[in-house]
Amino acid sequence: MSGVPTAVSPATKTPGLYLRVDLLAGASSPGSAKLRALIIAPRSDAGKITPDTQLREAIGGADDARTIWGPGTQGHLAAVRLFKRYGVALVHGVAPAASTGAPATGSFTLSGAPASESTIRITIKGVRIDVPWHLGEDPNQARDRAIAVINAWNRFAVSTRMVPGHYTPGQYKH
Question: Against a cut of 0.70, is the pTM above it?
Answer without folding.
Answer: no
